[in-house]
Write a structure and sequence with these properties.
Structural class: alpha/beta
Low-confidence stretches: 12-18
Radius of gyration: 22 Å
Order of helices and strands: HEHEHHEHHEHEEHHEHHEEEHHHHEEEEH
Number of strands: 14
Oligomer: single chain
C-alpha cells in the first residue's frame, strides 16, 4: 500500500510540467522541524507497525521533489523564528527577533502572502499557536521585535489578508489601547470560533472562548472537541475557495508551531505526536491537490531545527527502541502539573506508571527510581523533566540543547513547478521561488 501511494505521488509530481504556474499554493512550515525529527517520527511509525528496524514514511516525505535549506540570519548563524520566518516569507535576511523588516529594522519587507494578495489571489495564514507569534506574524506584520504582540496583531487588519487562523491572540485588549477585536470588526473581519464553517468576506478563526490563546492543545494531550491543525487547514481551504478563490487562486501558509515547543522541552514523544499532526494537516492539502493536480503546489519546510535531536545514545550502543516512546500518554507540561499537584511520592510513582509506563512497559532500574524520588524530594517540578529523559534513555533518543541549532532543514514539494524547490538552497530562495510563481517578480 505504501509503495503504491509513493508511486502515485511520484507520477503525479511528474505530470506537472516544468515552469507551470500554480493557481493554488500551500506553504507548510514545521517550526523547529529538523531532519531527525522526521527520522524519529518515521521510526516510531515503523515500530507501531511491528517493524523495529526500518522507518515508516510520512506522507510529505514521499513527495517527489526533495531538498534542504540553510537557515542562517543576517547577524547570527543560529537563527530564531522571527528572522527565519521573515526570510521564508519575504526572501530577505534579517536580524534575530525581527518581524517583517530589514536587518537594520528601518524598513518593512514584503511577504509572499501580501504579494499574492496584490496579484488578486485569496490569502491566509494559519498556525497551531497564536496568530501573533513569530512565524505567522512574519507574513503580515512589520515590527522591530517579535515581543510586540499587540502591535503585531494590530498589523493584521491593516495588512488585510483574507484569513488569520490559529489559537488566538496573546494581547488583544491591553489597557488604554484600542481593542484588536474592534479594529478587526472595523476592517470587516468576522470571527469564527472552534471547528466550524468560516463565514464572512474576511475572517479570523480561533479557539472557543476560554481556551488558551497561546496554542492549540498539543496532539498528545488532545481531547474531543479541541480545535486541531488539520481542522484549521480544512476550514481555511474551504474559506479561501469562496469569493473568487476558486477562480483567482489562493495562497495559504500553515505553521506546525508546536513541533518547536516540544523540541525546546526535549520531549521526544510529544515531538513525534506534533510531527504526525503536521503530516495530517498536509494530508488535507494533499487531498485538495489530488482534485486539482495541475494547478496546485505544496511546499513543506522548516524555519530551523530545535533541540539538536540525535537518534542514538551511549548507554544503548548501536541499539534503539524508539517504539517505547509510545508509552508516554501526555506532554511533559501536563505531567509536571500532575506531579506538582500530587500529595506524596507514592502518588507520583503511580502517576509515572500510568502516564509513562514506568514499571510496566518501561523497565525502570532501581537506580532510576531512586533518582526520581530524590529529585521529587528536592524539586517536584523537575521530576517530569527527569522522567521524560529516562524514557528517552531507554528509547535511544538524545538532545544536545534546549535551544535552536544551525543545521540544514528539509524541503519537500509536489505539484506545479515543484521542481524549483529541489536540491541545496537557502531559505530566502524558497520565498523568491514562490514570488516568481505568483507573478510578483
Amino acid at each position: 500500500m505504501k509503495k503504491t501511494l509513493f508511486l502515485l505521488l511520484f507520477l503525479a509530481g511528474l505530470v506537472c510540467r516544468a515552469g507551470e504556474r500554480p493557481k493554488y499554493i500551500f506553504y507548510f512550515i514545521g517550526d523547529g522541524m529538523g531532519h531527525n525529527a522526521l527520522s524519529l517520527t518515521e521510526a516510531c511509525q515503523a515500530s507501531e507497525q511491528g517493524d523495529d528496524v526500518g522507518f515508516g514514511a510520512l506522507h510529505f516525505t514521499r513527495f517527489p521533489v526533495v531538498g534542504f535549506a540553510t537557515t542562517w540570519c543576517a547577524n547570527r548563524r543560529m537563527t530564531d523564528s522571527a528572522a527565519a520566518g521573515t526570510a521564508l516569507a519575504s526572501g530577505q535576511k534579517t536580524s534575530v527577533g525581527t518581524i517583517g523588516m530589514n536587518a537594520e529594522r528601518t524598513e518593512p519587507v514584503q511577504s509572499v502572502a501580501v504579494a499574492a494578495k496584490e496579484q488578486g489571489m485569496r490569502t491566509g495564514v494559519a498556525t497551531s499557536v497564536s496568530i501573533d507569534h513569530a512565524t505567522p506574524a512574519s507574513f503580515y506584520a512589520h515590527r522591530p521585535t517579535r515581543n510586540m504582540y499587540y502591535e503585531i496583531a494590530m498589523d493584521a487588519p491593516q495588512t488585510g489578508l483574507d484569513l488569520y487562523a490559529g489559537s488566538g491572540f496573546l494581547k488583544p485588549e491591553p489597557k488604554r489601547h484600542v481593542s484588536l477585536y474592534d479594529a478587526l470588526d472595523k476592517a470587516g473581519y468576522r470571527i469564527t470560533r472552534g471547528d466550524n464553517e468560516i463565514t464572512g468576506r474576511r475572517a479570523v478563526l480561533m479557539q472557543e472562548e476560554g481556551a488558551d490563546p497561546a496554542n492549540l492543545p498539543l496532539a498528545i494531550d488532545r481531547r474531543p472537541g479541541d480545535l486541531t491543525l488539520p481542522a484549521v487547514t480544512r476550514r481555511s481551504i474551504d474559506f479561501l475557495m469562496k469569493d473568487g478563490g476558486a477562480r483567482n487562486g489562493f495562497f495559504l501558509m500553515v505553521e506546525g508551531g508546536q513541533i518547536d515547543w516540544a523540541a525546546h522541552s526535549n520531549d521526544a514523544a510529544t515531538l513525534v505526536h506534533e510531527v504526525k499532526d503536521f503530516d495530517s494537516a498536509i494530508c488535507v492539502a494533499l487531498s485538495f491537490y489530488r482534485e486539482h493536480p495541475g494547478e496546485t503546489l505544496i511546499v513543506v519546510t522548516a524555519d530551523h531545527e530545535t533541540g539538536g535531536l540525535a537518534l542514538g545514545r551511549d548507554n544503548l550502543g548501536y541499539d534503539t527502541y524508539f517504539g517505547l516512546l509510545a508509552a508516554q500518554k501526555c506532554s511533559k507540561g501536563v505531567l509536571k502539573a500532575a506531579i506538582e499537584a500530587a500529595p506524596d511520592w507514592e502518588t507520583v510513582k503511580k502517576l509515572l506508571g500510568e502516564k509513562m509506563g514506568f514499571g510496566t512497559l518501561i523497565a525502570v532500574t532501581p537506580e532510576e527510581w531512586t533518582e526520581l524520588e530524590e529529585t521529587h524530594v528536592k524539586n517536584a517540578g523537575k521530576t517530569a523533566d527527569l522522567a521524560v529523559d529516562i524514557l528517552a534513555r531507554h528509547a535511544g533518543a538524545g538532545w544536545t540543547t534546549g535551544s535552536h541549532t544551525a543545521t540544514y532543514v528539509p524541503v519537500f514539494a509536489i505539484g506545479a513547478s515543484s521542481e524549483m524547490f529541489g536540491g541545496r538552497q537557502d531559505n530566502t530562495q524558497i520565498a523568491d521561488g514562490l514570488r516568481k510563481l505568483i507573478g510578483a517578480e
